[in-house]
Amino acid sequence: SYELTQDPSVSVALGQTVRITCQGDSLRRYYASWYKQKPGQAPVLVIYGKDNRPSGIPDRLSGSSSGNTASLTITGAQAEDEADYYCHSRDSSGEHLVFGGGTKLTVL
Amino acid sequence: EVQLVESGGGLVQPGGSLRLSCGVSGFPFSSYEMSWVRQTPGKGLEWVSYISDGGFGTYYADSVKGRFTISRDNAKNSLYLQMNSLRDEDTAVYYCARVVIVATSSVFYDYFDYWGQGTLVTVSS
After folding, report:
1. Which of A29, A43, A95 is the closest to B115 by Cβ?
2. pLDDT (tens digit per residue) in B2-45
3. Residue of chain B minimizing CA distance to A39
4. How many CB atoms lie within 10 A of CB A47?
5. How far B46 CA sits from the closest chain A CA (Å)?
6. Cβ contacts of residue A15 below 8 Å, gap of 6+?
7. Nearest CA-CA partner of A34 in A11, A58, A61
8. Which of residues 4-63 of B touch A (CB under 8 A)?
9. Least CB-CB distance to B115: which of A42, A84, A98?
10. Backbone angles phi, psi at A46, to 5 degrees
11. Could you give the angle at the alpha carbon of A32 between the alpha carbons of A31 and A33, nearest 5°?
């Protein structure tokens, strides 16, 4: 079971904005990080900390947090954004690392 | 260029053992915490284990505690995962990943900034 909850699937029209959320009590204490994964590939870090992007990640991806919910927002979704997205943080005890169940993003 | 390359995966019978390795280059290995993360085919990511930079702190997911052992050899720039008493449900692609920890007086978080390409472990009779 996951201590971080994500919607299994989300869809967005090309060029529109979509928000992918991650809920969990531990998010009140720890920032989440976000990973993008395409089929057959390793995950790639896209957002970490309050709202930081690694080099090479487009600025249409942004992160935010409020209470027990972390969000990944894609502004002006592109076809290449279609992928599975996972959030990560610590569990409530702080001793274990945990991932959300993942959200499959479809760009229509 | 940072590189992480896993090896050691394969087919093993239930109850058997396997040792995974992750060779790294392109960064000072001894300065970073490391983790193993796995993914069952068609399913989500599952954190498996974590080791501190010096190797003295180790943590495990409940699903593998007592069966798996994480270790590292900083002189060889290598990370390991010894897997014993393997079960069908351990079948997965296993990734090694570099961990970055940010800890200040007001904030704490961590993230995986580099990942290997993964090695497939299949547990089946």
Report:
1. A43
2. 999 999 999 999 999 999 999 999 999 999 999 999 999 889 99
3. B42
4. 27
5. 6
6. A76, A77, A78
7. A61
8. 35, 37, 44-47, 50, 59, 61-62
9. A42
10. -120, -30
11. 125
Q: Which of B21, B30, B35 is nearest to B113 (CA)?
A: B35
- Calpha distance B1→B102 (Å, rounded): 22
CA distance A80 to A6: 21
Percent of chain B with pLDDT over 90: 93
| Nearest residue in B to A104, CA atom | B44
Nearest to A26 by CA among A86, A100, A85, A84: A100
Nearest to A96 among B59, B114, B117 (CB): B59
Cβ–Cβ under 8 Å, residues B123 and B13: yes
Judging by DSSP bridges, how do beta strands A44-47 and B18-25 pair with one another? Answer: unpaired
User: Phi, psi (5° rounding) for residue A14?
Assistant: -55, 130
As given in the structure block, the two tokens for residue B68 are 């798996």
Instruction: Report CA B25 to chain centroid distance, whole Å.
Output: 16
